[in-house]
Design brief:
This protein is an alpha/beta fold. 35% of the residues lie in helices and 27% in strands. The model has no long low-confidence stretch (mean pLDDT 95).
């Protein structure tokens, strides 16, 4: 195999990991690395500083470079840089979930038009192989459901809140000190990162283009130690779940939000920064993929894996990996969160007076909601009681209507939280 010349855009944690792994492969030659700060000191032994440039267009316009590895992240200016690379007939290997979720349709269209491919195994679950298995060995299946933990930061925080009885703020601070969470953790804790990933995963699993802007998204910032404790007493743990499923008439239900997950469920056993993806397909049934979903080495494993497969294919064919070409022409008909059906956990603060539980039951009944569990969690100094309700399967819009009606009742002080339930 003759040496494949590549350029790397982005040289942070993942980019450095990719560089280090590639040192073991003499058939891959790194021609150039684009960085934000060319003067930053690189803690890499015997590193050749002449490889660096602060101009990514130096890479995508270089006729010698055949493959562009993009691990910089973000949409601007990355989108325009990669468009230029594709128009210059360069193959792309990327870990950029935000870019693919927002602009993937146009990039894949351009790639097809220019006879190049985009590989993105690292974009969804770090070191867990999931994209190529769906596109190859699982292509005989009709995948109908995805339920996944796709963000290590939030899973770490929720794990520590459960195991150590920490508050959200304390658990977040601990995650930041250990490097699991950024100084500004918004992308993780508000569910943006997970939403990008489930958009990509749902698109390839259901063979329909999923619109990131139509995905319901809710983060973990409202989860309290009280919620964690109540869930544990009820036989659940709380996880940030990415859900994608085919429902009636071929419509799809794609969303991200915290869920009470029954302790017997496999996803309930996934702890700390680990990721896990459950796929349901026909004829294969249920499959589970679990492993490291982020970090330099796991992500580099997927990036370099894509690159090596591509390199071997380029030796054999002018049209490598046809299964990697995006052929999704149908737009997914995504249902609104209000039209979904779930079981629910509702934490209610009510006056500690006779009849409060009766009011809750009456209002739920009026809105077509059956209660499976209701318990009072003691009283506070202000003579209010914490009441926890678990419902049977109900329509989201009915539950939201019930909550509005409850808040109009004199005995209901506030709704502390509403979470959906996975059994």
């Amino acid at each position: 195999m003759k040496a494949l010349k590549v350029g790397i855009i982005g040289f942070g944690t993942v980019g450095t990991g990719v560089y280090n792994v590639l040192q073991d492969f003499k058939d891959i030659e790194i021609k150039k690395i684009a960085v934000k700060n060319i003067n930053k000191k690189r803690n890499i032994e015997n590193f050749d500083e002449t490889l660096l440039t602060d101009n990514p267009y130096e890479i995508v316009n270089n006729p010698e470079i055949g493959v562009v590895i993009e691990v910089a992240g973000g949409v601007n200016p990355t989108y325009d840089v990669l468009k230029t690379a594709i128009q210059n007939k360069k193959h792309i290997v990327t870990a950029n979930k935000e870019l693919l979720a927002k602009e993937g349709s146009e990039l894949f269209r351009l790639a097809k038009e220019n006879g190049v491919i985009i590989l993105y195994e690292a974009a969804v679950a770090g070191g867990i192989p999931i994209i190529m298995p769906i596109k190859t060995i699982l292509c005989a299946n009709k995948i109908t459901k995805i339920a996944a933990i796709l963000n290590g930061t939030t899973n770490y925080i929720l794990t520590k809140m459960g195991e150590k009885e920490l508050s959200y703020d304390v658990a977040l601070k601990q995650a930041q000190e250990l490097g699991y969470a950024e100084t500004d953790p918004t992308g993780d804790v508000e569910g943006f990162d997970t939403a990008y990933k489930i958009a990509i995963l749902s698109t390839i699993s259901f063979n329909k283009k999923v619109n990131i802007n139509k995905i319901y998204r809710e983060g973990i910032t409202k989860i309290t130690a009280q919620d964690i404790k109540a869930a544990k007493e009820l036989g659940y743990t709380i996880k940030l779940i990415a859900l994608g499923q085919v429902v009636e008439d071929g419509k799809v239900d794609v969303r991200v939000h915290p869920m009470l997950v029954a302790k017997k469920h496999l996803l309930a056993k996934v702890k700390n920064a680990t990721n896990s993806i459950m796929l349901t397909g026909k004829p294969v049934g249920e499959l589970v993929f679990t492993g490291a979903g982020a970090g330099a080495e796991p992500t580099a494993s997927s990036v370099v894996g894509d690159l090596l497969v591509l390199a071997s294919e380029l030796e054999a064919s002018n049209h490598p990996l046809p299964q990697a070409i995006c052929n999704h022409t149908e737009i997914a008909d995504q249902i609104d969160i209000g039209d979904t059906f779930n079981e629910y956990y509702i934490a209610i603060n009510a006056s500690n007076n006779p009849g409060a539980i009766g009011v809750i039951g009456t209002i739920c009944g009026k809105n077509n909601i059956n209660i499976s569990t209701i318990m009072q969690k003691g009283t506070k100094d202000d003579n209010t009681a914490e009441i926890v309700v678990i419902t049977e399967r109900s329509k989201e819009s009915d539950v939201q209507n019930a909550l509005q009606e409850l808040l109009k009742s004199e005995c209901i002080k506030k709704i502390d939280n509403l979470l959906r339930v996975m059994n």
